[in-house]
Amino acid sequence: MAEVELEGWQKKSEEHQKQYKNFLQRADKNKVLKQLPDLHEEAFSKIDCLQCAACCKNYSPRFKTPDIKRISKYLGMKEGAFIEKYLCLDTEGDYVVKSSPCAFLGEDNFCSIYDQRPSDCHRFPYTDEDVLLKRPAITLKNSTFCPAVYYVLERLGEK
Questions:
Q1: d(Cα 87, Cα 73) in Å, to the nearest integer?
Q2: What is the pLDDT along the chain (159 residues), one digit of tens a residue?
Q3: Structural domains of the chain, count
Q4: Which of 78, 80, 82, 108 minimizes the number of CB atoms within 10 Å of its CB?
Q5: Residue 96 host element (H or E)
């Protein structure tokens, strides 16, 4: 089994998009789902999110009602004030952050609300769950900016 080279991964991910798309379309779901927990762990043993934070710098999670309630309470704000200060509605009617990078991301790439973060942030990059297969468009997009998704797709392609 070849080691996945992370040097220059963005360019390789770009070059492999068609390959990933084909793989995701024909993958044996049960076989892949069994492999994901180990591959997820393996990826994060090699990748430090604090060195990257591209997800927090360029994209927004959805802030669902429980997230808004929990985070606004944590910040000692009324929900309406929290929404007004930090969020806006996207084209799909979901609350997302008003600006990039995320207002809760520090210069050190640490999240100031990490323990209270939205469930989308907690679950991202979905490399240990069926979203990887169920939502191939999201997986392909994520593989262009998240080295962990790139890593997992490369390893799945080897098997």
A1: 15
A2: 557 888 899 999 999 999 999 999 999 999 999 999 999 999 999 999 999 999 999 999 999 999 999 999 999 999 999 999 999 999 999 999 999 999 999 999 999 999 999 999 999 999 999 999 999 999 999 999 999 999 999 999 886
A3: 2
A4: 108
A5: strand 95-97
| Judgement on whether residues 27 and 69 belong to the same structural domain of the protein | no
Same domain (yes/no): 66, 115: yes
Residues 23 and 39 in one domain: yes
26 is in which domain, residue-wise?
Answer: 9-49+127-158
Query: What residues form DSSP beta bridges with 97?
Result: 87
84 and 118 both lie in a single domain: yes
